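Running low. Got one?
___
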Amino acid sequence: MNKITILIAALFCFSIGVNAQIKPQMVFVEGGSFQMGNPGTQAPKGDADERPVHNVTVKSFYIAKTEVTVKEYKQFIADNSAKDFLNKREHKMPAAPDSAWYAEHPDTKKYYPLPSRPWWDWQDDLPMQHITWYDAVAYCNWLSQKEGLQKCYSENADGGIDFDPTKNGYRLPTEAEWEFAARGGTKSKGTIYSGSANPMDVCWFDDSSNLKGPQKVGTKNANELGIFDMSGNVWEWCSDYYAKDYYTKSPTDNPINLTVSSYRVLRGGSWHYQVDHATVTSRDGPEPHFANFNYGMRLAKNN
């Protein structure tokens, strides 16, 4: 075999490898109805924004088997064709936690002193973290473009981001889809954590992680649908705007809060939070430009 043939073969193998890395593993979630929210009648009772419990029906969709990994996200960062949303993000990997971050997180510093090398060193099989909501939807659009699919997010005339749930590309799950999948969909056994009543079986939270950072995806047990880490590891951005009282006015069929506000939904808890935040009903709503070493993402897609 001559040098040119070897080079062509090598490039072909590299191309196959890149394509295999880019394409996420998606799990089919058969649509159905469920009682969304936490009644607050037994521990963990949840917060007021998890009530009232209300009936919701979602149509079938796909959701990623794991959170988006560092390895997957690095491909996005390295691709010069990736586009900004009005410069709301920078195309580079975030810095690792430094002494300033530790100063704001004394509990973590107590258990895991600042090391001489980057804390978790952006290892490929860790969940991507420290990303904003804008980072997350830019990644979704980039991956959709790579696979020749329609983009679900677009900039509007006011400088905001519009979400079109009818497009066939990758997107963040709606809040209702997220909870339905976390509960195990139509196969749900009704546990408060995703896949088990015992959080140690399925969840990376402060006690199980020993505050040593996010953990490799897929190392705890999966839930009823074969989905990993929906309880803990990193909080996961959803497409919805966040409102504390949304459950009092949520539609029944395929709800998504598109009423513009200053906040976006996060779900699932993280390695740095107490276990009560890792339930299938726990909600949070930071500003979309805010990043944290607890914040990551999971992909969804229409059926």
Summary: The longest helix spans residues 3-22. The longest strand covers residues 235-241. The radius of gyration is 19 Å.
